[in-house]
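tl;dr need the bound structure. longer version: we got a ligand (flavin-adenine dinucleotide) that a collaborator sent over and nobodys looked at where it sits. i said id run it. heres the input, straight from their email, havent touched it
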Amino acid sequence: MSVLVYIESEQGKLKKSALEVASYGKAIANQLGINVTAITFNMSDASELGTYGVDKIMNVNNIKEFNAKIYANYIQQVAESENSNLVILSSSANSKYLAPLLAINLNAGYVSNVVALPNDLTPFTVKCTAFTNKAFSFTEINASKKILSLSNNSFGLVQSTGNATFENFTPETVTSNVKIESVDKASDQVSIADADVVVSGGRGLKGPENWGMIEELAAVLGAATACSKPVSDLGWRPHSEHVGQTGKPVASNLYIAIGISGAIQHLAGINSSKVKVVINSDPEAPFFKAADYGIVGDAFDVVPTLIQKLKTFKAQNA
Ligand SMILES: Cc1cc2nc3c(=O)[nH]c(=O)nc-3n(C[C@H](O)[C@H](O)[C@H](O)COP(=O)(O)OP(=O)(O)OC[C@H]3O[C@@H](n4cnc5c(N)ncnc54)[C@H](O)[C@@H]3O)c2cc1C
């Protein structure tokens, strides 16, 4: 018997959220006194998982592109072969897509947006965010099989000592009625989902020609760039950068919002970020109420100054 963690990767590299899922899986496995098995797709080396508490890696190679129905079926097969009654996934778009399908396959209880270890194992009760991170709920799962999806950046990375065994698992192949014709991948240097720092711009930046300073600030901080919905709707930035209720969720350690008013739909997507810095010329902008640090000022003065100061600081501390 083991806890099964679904490990996401991109071009052979493990995602940070996947290492967090492994860390969380290990902590629950310790509570239950059992091992952790990871399912990976198309990995040749996933040994890093051993240092996050995984005991055994089962790698599936016979599907190249993500397909929720097929992935859910293969995860089910591994869960059954490992006798896993508890499966843990991240809160990525792909995981949110496949988790309900997996719940049907396994006849399991599924809880999303989990932010902490179970309060109780019997009955199994977990803390989750509700109402776009404005409240918490404590959800009890009574089904014997359970699936949890962990909110990004809620548990953190916890290293432990250990080595994971690696084996290729050949599932019974299944077909899907969803045909993937092409895949367009965002070419962000740092992906928003995995970024520790996100620099985000809004309509206050007036036009796409002014994004140079956003990119420069992001480059100095090693950050991902993001934007508000109108900015991507206007075509100033790609839709892959749109964050908020209808865009990507952000759970970074630092979120810098520049020229963004702080509408409720924007805040819904960035509430889980740990520290929020707001730069806005209007002292009454609603975003200041949600900010940890606020700078009232013109972005065209503040941002270049900030870049200069950060560059000087980096040079002095190199
Ligand atoms: C169903 C629905 C879903 C939505 N989903 C999303 C979503 O997912 N994400 C999202 O972002 N929005 C979403 N919206 C839109 C949302 O309601 C707001 O309209 C949007 O977030 C506003 O974007 P903004 O802050 O960039 O622009 P604005 O509201 O125009 O704000 C611009 C801000 O820039 C400031 N500013 C102006 N000039 C400067 C300057 N020189 N220096 C510094 N600051 C300056 C202004 O004071 C202002 O606060 C949604 C709306 C609906 C109805």
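gonna send this back to them w/ a short note. The mean pLDDT is 94.
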